[in-house]
Design a protein that fits this description.
The protein has a 7-stranded mixed sheet with strand order 3-2-1-4-7-8-9, sandwiched between helices. Strands 6-5-10-12-11 form a 5-stranded antiparallel sheet. The chain has a single domain, classed as Rossmann fold (3-Layer(aba) Sandwich). Helix content is about 30%, strand content about 25%. Helix 1 packs parallel to helix 4 and helix 2 crosses helix 6. It is α/β, with parallel strands linked by helices. Helix 3 links the parallel strand 7 and strand 8.
Length: about 260
């Protein structure tokens, strides 16, 4: 059984502020080690459930965060960015039994985490067919287009709730909860125990194998925090200015959405 894991850092135990997860921060090493440990716990849960091959996608920042030597020997690791539209799901293909998500965070505009965002911190909101969406939703749609079910997520409470609205039977572990600019966290060791058990249970749960239906001909509204960024992105092929800070895209499919995301900066 082949299992894919997409890993972010804003939703791991201890992650509370932007400067803490930047590579030049004095606290970064602790954050990346907890990210590595939570990915390792998910791998261990997958192996206990019968996984024979695991592909981990380091999906935060430089994509050079996870310490590969601390993962199980069965785990291969995708590092850095290839430039392909799958981005946080790079390496996923048909034939994987399941996708899991570790360290994920709430969508842009959500009050559930002080580090809420969707794909780019330059956006205040990312809407598909009029509804704000999260990175998890975009990535789960991408996985579904390859016939790969998304069965498990760990991260902040908002991210888990948003995932469950899309996939009611998904396994999940709430690691932290936002309180305005503050956060409340599980003890790191407790987080590892729950992720390990949650990942194993999710892979064994047939109900969690449901595929979400990606939106057909999605209309995407990108609401930027700064007018100058909306002005720049409105020159993307097919983009329409929808407001002072917003740009609208009429996409063919989920892949088309992710291709456009690469040009947001």
């Amino acid at each position: 059984m082949k299992v894919f894991i997409s890993a972010d850092i804003e939703g791991v135990s201890g992650a509370a502020a932007w400067d803490q997860i930047a590579r030049d921060s004095a606290e970064y090493d602790a954050a990346r080690r907890q990210m590595t440990a939570e990915v390792r716990a998910a791998c261990e849960g997958a192996l206990a459930a019968g996984a024979t091959e695991i592909l981990v996608r380091d999906a935060h920042g430089s994509a050079r965060n996870i310490i590969h030597s601390e993962l199980p020997r069965e785990a291969r690791l995708v590092r850095c960015w290839s430039g392909a539209p799958l981005m946080m799901m790079d390496g996923l293909e048909r034939g994987f039994a399941a996708a899991m998500y570790v360290g994920y965070h709430s969508r842009a505009g959500s009050p559930e985490s002080p580090m809420s965002h969707t794909m780019s911190v330059t956006l205040s909101e990312f809407r598909v067919n009029g509804r704000p969406v999260s990175e998890f939703e975009l990535n789960a749609w991408a996985a579904a287009s390859l016939k790969v079910p998304s069965v498990y997520i760990s991260g902040d409470k908002g991210a888990c709730a948003q995932a469950r609205r899309l996939l009611p039977h998904i396994g999940y572990t709430e690691i932290l909860e936002g309180l305005g600019e503050a956060t409340v966290h599980l003890h790191p060791a407790v987080a590892l125990d729950r992720i390990r058990a949650g990942a194993e249970a999710a892979l064994k749960d047939r109900a969690a194998r449901a595929l979400p239906k990606p939106p057909a001909r999605p209309v995407v509204d990108l609401v930027f925090k700064e007018i100058k960024r909306a002005q720049r992105f409105c020159f993307y092929p097919g983009a329409e200015r929808a407001g002072a800070n917003s740009v609208r895209l009429r996409c063919r499919d989920c892949y088309d959405i992710l291709r456009a995301v690469q040009f947001i900066y």
